[in-house]
Amino acid sequence: MTLPVIETIGAALPFDEMGEPENCRAQYQLIQRWMAEMPPELLGLKRREAELLFRRIGITFAVYSEGGDPERLIPFDIIPRVLDAAEWELVSRGLRQRVRALNEFLRDVYHGRQILRAGLIPPELVLHNAGFRPEMQDFEPAQGVYTHVAGIDLVRLGPRDFTVLEDNCRTPSGVSYMLENREAMMRLFPDLFARHRIASVSHYPEDLLETLQSVAPPNCAGEPRVALLTPGAYNSAYYEHSFLADEMGIEIVEGVDLFVDDNIVYMRTTEGPKRVDVIYRRIDDDFIDPLTFRPDSLLGTPGLFNAYRSGNVTLANGIGAGIADDKAIYRHVPAMIRFYLGEEPILHNVRTYSCGDREDLAYVLEHLAELVVKETHGSGGYGMLIGPQATREQLAAFADKLRASPGDYIAQPTLALSTCPTFVESGIAPRHVDLRPFVLVGKEIRVVPGGLTRVALRDGSLVVNSSQGGGTKDTWVLEG
Amino acid sequence: MRLHVRHQTSYRYDNPIAAAIQTLRLTPRSYDGLRIVQWRVWSDARRDFPVFVDGYGNLTHCHAVNQPHSSAVVFVEGEVETAATSGIVRGTPEPLPPLFFLRRTRLTEPDAAIETLARQIAPQGSALKQLHALLNAVRDRLDYLPGATDAATPAAAALAAGAGVCQDHAHLFISAARLLAIPARYIGGYLWTGMESREYQASHAWAEAFVHDLGWVGFDPANRICPTEAYIRTSVGLDYWSAAPVRGVRRGAAAESLSVAVQVTQAGGDQ
Amino acid sequence: MLSRTADGLYWLARHMERAENVARIVMVGHRMSSMARSLDNPGNEWHSTLLAAGCEPGFFAKHGEATAPLVIDYLVRDPDNPSSIFSCLETARRNARAVRTALTVDMWDALNETWYQARSSARFVAPSANLPELLEWVKERSLLFNGAYSNTMLRNDAYYFTRLGTFIERADNTARILDVKYHVLMPRHEAVGGALDYYHWQAILRSVSALRSYHWVYQDRLKPWQVAEFLILRPEMPRSLLSCYDQIIRTLEQLAEAYGGKRGECHRIAGELHARLRFGRIRDIFQSGLHEFLTDFVDRSVTLGDAISTLYLM
């Protein structure tokens, strides 16, 4: 193990994506003028209109654990975020590169494990990780694709510095917001669209369907039948599931709608059983098949994994893809890119300390007040510590947790996330944003220009998760 | 030694159930200590089942009945030629590396008592010596007592109870071996018990541990020996959970009554 | 379509219809008991209302005596009663959410808004306080839903399963409402055909919105066998058993056509029941007992529902 390079975190100012008022960046000039022309009352009116629109469309995001209205709305900010063609070209190239490497990694990790033999990743980190599914060993999914839909969470730290915060290789959600946000903006501000040339995102469902069809299993004869597998109407992302199924024109099924016979998957229809070839599944590995994984799962279909492993059905995303987006594996992604692709990473990584490593842990404990500490298996911003915002007691309590099970945590410096103009109570003000673009991997790789921009509505907040009170914005990619 | 296996599992339900599906790991794979003469798995509902190789290298059958039924019988019948290898297992398909088998699982999660056991074994010296000491230590601490535990009992609970069956012996052995940094795994299979009184069922479970220079070596703590030519190895996994000979899910509310009959005999004459 | 989706549509229609029907049954109970009170003749109207709604065992598992406020609360608001109006609306919405993609926007809006209002308004807090208004509201919401689906759904299998739900539930309900009369005890000094008896029949007709149409069809005063005939055998009466079965038969045939001629036991059962209604005579029914006829009919409806499930919904 090499000694971690100890860095002091500079109090750098966040990058303002619009630029100074007197020195507005080119892609924001029309937006700036538009904001200046628009009377504040009208802006408020438009926001209420947008809210109504969303309520009507029925976008909901249930956060049951918080109690309260289980169908509360995610706030939508009506000021778009704008990326120019050159910026997007960089991001898109970086995303393709990264997702190719992640897929190569998954294929390697479930076959010969060359990357472990090469000594680039500690073998225990993979082999003893809950995300590593031995059930997948030596299984080759159709087209060699494991993560068909990847959501890569990016933050921007400078004009050309796009940094990956987290990879999501299992069942990333949020794409419906990307699509609905665009739809809402076009309805609310048609004139703005007339004044810009904005790359379209509306073909995402078609791209997704083509991607899924392109990974039909080897044993599929004829036109593949695709279905979307949801945990059900009470899942927080159910709206997105039904929206996508609708847009793709495929059935949305629950575990009980499917059954397995002779290792072939069928769905129960009013006309009798119909064979299913590709399943876009939005159920986690653990719950997808009680015969192979958690036996107490009521959501899955028993026998599904056997059918998958027998080459009779494709699951997208594949089983076991979680090892690639594990927070402990994250720091090794640049090494993967170099190892598998022989390229230098285009997107940056955040410096990450593995608390399981003794020296890293010592550093983390010493600098806890400056760091963000995350659970390696947590998600949604729960169970994390934001050092600079924590009280002394919180820091001490967290330090105890760290010492008790260091292997469960990683730490990263707090980042100066870029800001975008956002409509808040006090008027228009800069707020921190991130970006989740969606990358589709089938026979080819496709990236829809843009993605879901999440914005921390509270001043100074760095948490942009929708489950923690963040909002969303429409994300524009200007055509060159 | 030529061994013949007949294994019949009958399920009965007090109400018809809508559907049932099972994963069966009941078929040996050839290796230095075993050659398959013939082997078949079938049921009263189906003549043959689809088969695939799982991530551990087990030959896995899937048996599905998708219409209402109130009984089902699964049959296994086969013949193998075994050879004594002093417990050393060579020539098996090994998709996963030994290091993987240090991974902890719920059923083999060590507690303080197992840690103490491992600490007592540690001074034995070489891994092989430790494992042989462990073989006896496990059996000393766990009386053979059917019914004291069930399929979901973790090693720690069995040790606390001081009793269990071959599955618990294997789990405890595996748990302690892993604490000693020796990769260990769970093996399911059949056992020819000859003419002796049948203390153990012919369906059996034991462990394998990875020893440098030797590779995988079998240990049967329930019988305090390394597997002989009387052992037929059919499944391998991290623990009972992943190596389960039979795992099933059914749809429908009914009480199940199960009867299992296993006969392992020496083929080609009485003895 | 997915069996579960068909099942969801079928049951969502049944629950909306049931909500309306329970409202109608409570309306009968309410009218009969007011009548009895005004004639200073308190009877067992609320008990018989429970019987008609099929909620008697559940109610007495929870309460000791069938008093007006308790029965009303149990039938209207109680979330523990799966057939209470509130439970029906909630179940309908839950089914709707699960099959959301199969619904038209108008259907969803009607259901969602109904549920939303039911949850947020004060109506359900103390149902006895504003009973007539509450029951009117339930009827309106159900009519809105029926209008929404009739006018916006594609005429395909999804529509047929929704309709099946509506009419199977409606037939069941009309039979139950008519049966209320059987359970209500007449005070000893009240003659059959007397004032109270008359008011009972009137309340029944009113509850199925058929008082005026009765007069229109029969041009006669209320006579028990004519009321029964109207609600069982007359094709013009849209809530009569025959009317409902006309629709059920037609819908099952449309399904068979849509699915390449595939028919099953449900087609046979429905055909048999339909024939009994189509060619039945009211005096034969009365001769062998109206209550027996209705009980038998409700049982057969259940068998039909099971057969539909077996063929399509499982």
Please outline the helices and strands.
The complex is a heterotrimer of chains A (480), B (271) and C (314).
Chain A: E1 19-20, E2 23-24, H1 29-37, H2 40-57, E3 76-83, H3 85-109, H4 114-117, H5 123-127, E4 149-158, E5 161-168, H6 175-188, H7 190-195, H8 204-213, E6 226-229, H9 238-248, E7 251-253, E8 258-261, E9 264-269, E10 272-275, E11 278-281, H10 285-288, H11 304-309, E12 314-316, H12 333-341, E13 348-349, E14 353-354, H13 358-366, E15 371-375, E16 385-386, H14 392-404, E17 409-413, E18 419-424, E19 427-436, E20 438-441, E21 445-447, E22 452-455, E23 471-477
Chain B: E1 2-17, E2 19-27, E3 34-43, E4 51-53, E5 59-65, E6 69-82, E7 88-89, H1 112-121, H2 127-141, E8 143-144, H3 155-161, E9 163-164, H4 166-179, E10 184-191, E11 203-211, E12 215-219, E13 231-237, H5 240-243, E14 246-251, E15 256-266
Parallel strand pairs in B: 8-9
Antiparallel strand pairs in B: 1-6, 1-15, 2-5, 2-14, 3-6, 4-5, 7-12, 10-11, 10-13, 11-12
Chain C: H1 3-38, H2 45-53, H3 56-62, H4 68-76, H5 85-98, H6 105-120, H7 131-152, H8 157-183, H9 195-207, H10 211-218, H11 224-232, H12 241-258, H13 265-279, H14 282-288, H15 290-313
Order of neighbouring strands in the sheet with most strands of chain B: 7-12-11-10-13
Structural class call of chain C reads mainly alpha
CATH topology of the largest domain in chain B: C8orf32 fold
**Helical content class of chain C:** over 70%
Describe the structure.
The complex is a heterotrimer of chains A (480), B (271) and C (314). With 480 residues, chain A is α+β, with helices and mostly antiparallel strands. Chain A has helices spanning 29-37, 40-57, 85-109, 114-117, 123-127, 175-188, 190-195, 204-213, 238-248, 285-288, 304-309, 333-341, 358-366, 392-404; strands at 19-20, 23-24, 76-83, 149-158, 161-168, 226-229, 251-253, 258-261, 264-269, 272-275, 278-281, 314-316, 348-349, 353-354, 371-375, 385-386, 409-413, 419-424, 427-436, 438-441, 445-447, 452-455, 471-477. Chain A has a domain at 218-312: Rossmann fold (3-Layer(aba) Sandwich). Chain A has a 5-stranded mixed beta sheet. The longest helix of chain A has 25 residues, at 85-109. Mean pLDDT of chain A is 88; it is low at 1-11 and 60-70. Chain B is an alpha+beta fold and 271 residues long. Chain B has 5 helices and 15 strands. In chain B, strands 7-12-11-10-13 form a 5-stranded antiparallel beta sheet. Chain B is globular. The mean pLDDT of chain B is 93. Chain C has one domain (3-313). Chain C is built from 15 helices and no strands. Chain C has helices at 3-38, 45-53, 56-62, 68-76, 85-98, 105-120, 131-152, 157-183, 195-207, 211-218, 224-232, 241-258, 265-279, 282-288, 290-313. Chain C is globular, with a radius of gyration of 19 Å. Chains A and B meet through helix 5 and strand 8 of A and strand 2, strand 5 and strand 14 of B.
